[in-house]
């Protein structure tokens, strides 16, 4: 069993990236990937901790991208998440991912607008409170929800989303995010495998719609689909698996562990019954071309 969808406190999880491999090992997991929202800042610490323990680990990211509904062709249909997995983690990889910094900057423009809307609703929290609470550079709604909870404005994180900051609630402000092609191409150019995260959340009723979306994403460079996910039903996982086979996509899966920000989700097990096969981890490793520099190979041959 492996877990390929995990957040740390470099975005909106609550564990240090360096603590996660130990936790995974205690649970008997055979592989782990770190996939923080729009940042790769935890990967070095994560990989070093995993290496020290002998825990197989992959550097990763989860990028928010603009979602264009394949039926309506409207560009304002919200966001989709693209996971990136990087079997090779070196300076070239991280350099190719530097455009992610723009997304984090965009959040610092968006969050004060949410705070302003909250003020108008009689909720007086400051952005400084939220940033202090987040202690990272990917500041998002879960951090705002935690401050609302801490200050007693709500009794649960869920109430914060339902009453104030959920997608259809009065203080919601959308994020500026990347076009889907840009997100996928950034991952692929960095030598990674791009994977459509939790397809269920796109709420595509018609299976044909998901197929046409996937065909479009494949043309952009998509390499896989998250088949196993805490909130997927067995029927949905089966449907996604069949689509993966038809389109030649890798199959991945994970819990979307966020630590105390989503206490109902356990590392590895999700809501309790998740079991992502080890092959999901190894197939990502093997999907990648070996890191061979042709010039170096030629240079190492003595005539
Ligand atoms: P942001 O990236 O700042 O828009 O925040 C997105 C995060 O908020 C995601 O990790 C979601 O899990 C969480 N989130 C979004 N909507 C809800 C909701 N209705 N209830 C609980 N968490 C939510
Ligand atoms: Zn999150
Ligand atoms: Fe996600
Ligand atoms: Fe996630």
Topology:
Blueprint lengths: L1 E2 L16 H7 L4 E4 L8 H11 L3 E10 L12 E8 L4 H6 L3 H21 L6 H8 L6 H10 L6 H9 L14 H10 L3 E4 L10 H14 L3 E6 L4 H14 L2 E5 L23 H10 L6 H7 L3
Parallel strand pairs: 1-2, 2-3, 5-6, 6-7
Antiparallel strand pairs: 3-4, 4-5
Helix pairs in contact: 1-2, 5-6, 6-7
The structure holds adenosine monophosphate, zinc ion (ZN) and fe (iii) ion (2 copies).
The site of zinc ion (ZN) has 4 residues, from loops.
H and E string:
EHEHEEHHHHHHEHEHEHH
Helix content: 40-55%
Q: Total number of helical segments? A: 12
3D shape: globular
Please report the distance between the alpha carbons of the first and last residues.
47 Å
Largest sheet entry: 7 strands, mixed
Strand content: 5-15%
Strand order of the largest sheet: 1-2-3-4-5-6-7
Description:
The protein is α/β, with parallel strands linked by helices. Helices cover 42% and strands 13% of the residues. It has helices at residues 20-26, 43-53, 91-96, 100-120, 127-134, 141-150, 157-165, 180-189, 207-220, 234-247, 278-287, 294-300, and strands spanning 2-3, 31-34, 57-66, 79-86, 193-196, 224-229, 250-254. Helix 9 links the parallel strand 5 and strand 6. Helix 1 (20-26) runs parallel beside helix 2 (43-53) and helix 6 crosses helix 7. The termini are far apart. Bound molecules: adenosine monophosphate (AMP), zinc ion and fe (iii) ion (FE) (2 copies).
């Amino acid at each position: 069993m492996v877990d390929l969808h995990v957040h740390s406190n470099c975005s909106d999880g609550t564990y240090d990236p360096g603590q996660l491999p130990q936790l995974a090992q205690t649970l008997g997991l055979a592989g782990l990937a770190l996939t923080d929202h729009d940042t790769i800042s935890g990967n070095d610490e994560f990989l070093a901790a995993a290496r020290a323990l002998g825990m197989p680990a992959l550097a990763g990211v989860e990028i928010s991208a603009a979602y264009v509904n394949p039926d309506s062709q409207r560009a304002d249909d919200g966001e989709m998440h693209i996971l990136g997995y990087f079997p090779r983690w070196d300076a070239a990889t991280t350099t190719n991912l530097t455009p992610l910094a723009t997304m984090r900057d965009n959040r610092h423009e968006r969050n004060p607008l949410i705070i302003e809307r909250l003020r108008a609703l009689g909720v007086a929290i400051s952005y400084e409170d939220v940033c202090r609470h987040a202690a990272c550079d990917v500041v998002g709604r879960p951090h705002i929800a935690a401050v609302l909870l801490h200050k007693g404005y709500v009794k649960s994180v869920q109430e914060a989303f339902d009453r104030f900051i959920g997608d259809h609630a009065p203080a919601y402000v959308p994020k500026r995010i990347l076009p889907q092609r840009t997100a996928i191409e950034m991952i692929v150019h960095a030598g990674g495998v791009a994977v459509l995260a939790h397809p269920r959340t796109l709420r595509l009723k018609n299976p044909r719609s998901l197929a046409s979306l996937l065909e479009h994403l494949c043309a952009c460079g998509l390499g896989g689909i998250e088949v196993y996910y805490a909130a997927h039903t067995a029927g949905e996982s089966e449907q996604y698996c069949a689509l993966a086979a038809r389109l030649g996509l890798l199959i991945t899966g994970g819990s979307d562990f966020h630590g105390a920000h989503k206490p109902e989700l356990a590392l590895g097990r999700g809501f309790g019954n998740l079991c992502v096969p080890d092959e999901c981890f190894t197939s990502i490793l093997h999907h990648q071309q070996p890191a061979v520099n042709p010039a170096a190979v030629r240079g190492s041959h003595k005539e």
